Amino acid sequence: MRYLPHTPKEIDAMLAAVGTGSLDGLFAPVPADCRMTSPWELPAPHSEWELNAHFSDLAGSMAVNEQTAALVGAGSYHHHIPETVRALVGRSEFLTSYTPYQPEMSQGTLQAIFEYQTLTARLLGVDVVNASMYDGASALAEALLMALRIAKKKQRVAMAKAIHPHYRAVVRAYLQPAGFEIVELDTLASGRTDLDGIGAQGDLAAVALQSPNFFGVIEDLDSAAVAVHQAEALLVAGFTEPLAFGLFKNPGSCGADIVCGEGQSFGLPRSFGGPYLGMFGCKAPFTRNLPGRLVGETRDLEGRRGYVLTLATREQHIRREKATSNICSNQGLCALTAAIHMASLGGTGIRQLARLNYDRAEYLKGLLVQAGARMVFSGPTFNEFVVEFATDFKPVRQRLLAQNIVAGLELGRLYPELAGRYLFCVTETIDKKTMDTIAAEVGA
Predict the structure, then answer these.
(1) Which residues of 77-96 are buried (b: 16+ CB within 10 A; e: fewer)?
(2) Whether the Cβ atoms of residue 172 and residue 331 lie closer than 8 Å to each other
(3) pLDDT tens for residues 273-292?
């Protein structure tokens, strides 16, 4: 929707209601030396179409714009967003509502969150999903804190190196100042995490994996769950691309105890890095340790269906020392966006879209191998894969950039041992012509 300024008539009516005759009178309690007296130094006003043209010019000056084919994922994915999502999320009753501090008065907001929880629980294969979190990184950190609460006396967790590096940095920021120890697990030649020594660790509260992991490789969560549970720890399964669960088994059905990750792929544009959405669910026995909030369904005295905050274990609702989290927002609009996106696609649509992403990534894989490149990891992948070229790829990448194609992410800065290797991402937004162009440049 569009937001229009108040008219002079409306301003006069509001001033009269509060008992003052001018805006100066309204701000009189503010000390004079704290008030701005000179006019704003702003450019001349533009008409709406002039302003739109100005914004288009600014967007066109960027190296990466709407017309750029960016084959870079690494936790942020470009997907088509159905117009149903934009149309519904833009409705004022959704767009302007905030977190329900008097929840039972906000039945519409609560129902929307309840629908999000239901759809997400089905997607992730868990019993309970909370009313969302900030993003995938903080969700992983909260999941490990939750596991430590459940384990009580244990002070150590294990975390795969194949988890997104930024997520691991956030986990360290959460856990290390509190005195918890973090063990990092190495990556095998397949791209999967090495769990052979997990039983020898002995006192781990949890083991965190990401699937698909940062390299796009699908972890063997079924085997991981067995190994982790034999070590008397909880399995925390993270993700950055939830669309993969339209094609591969979801973490809950593989035995994961806590599932968390990033939901940006479901209807949220990347928008220079946010806002994002943290998805978070767990098995039913761990519900009381869930961070954030949980919306439930009930019946009133007349038998009518209603929605309530069933669980609100954050410090704004209960005593600080009893809180499971200090999360201060439920990312309500982002959660609603994801719910509308999932409902718009439906189960069949999510499966078809996941298959399209998988097939296009495999197509580019085959082209690059034919052009002389080598896949760094042998494990099965979704959307993303790591590739090594026979010669220096930097000149080729620059030629492709001149054609408005961003070909992969060089991994040396994030993984020094993988310097010179590139992480490629292919979604449904990358067409055959673009992939053929990349392969032709590589083989030139």
Answers:
(1) bbbebeeebeebbeeeebee
(2) no
(3) 778 999 999 999 999 898 88
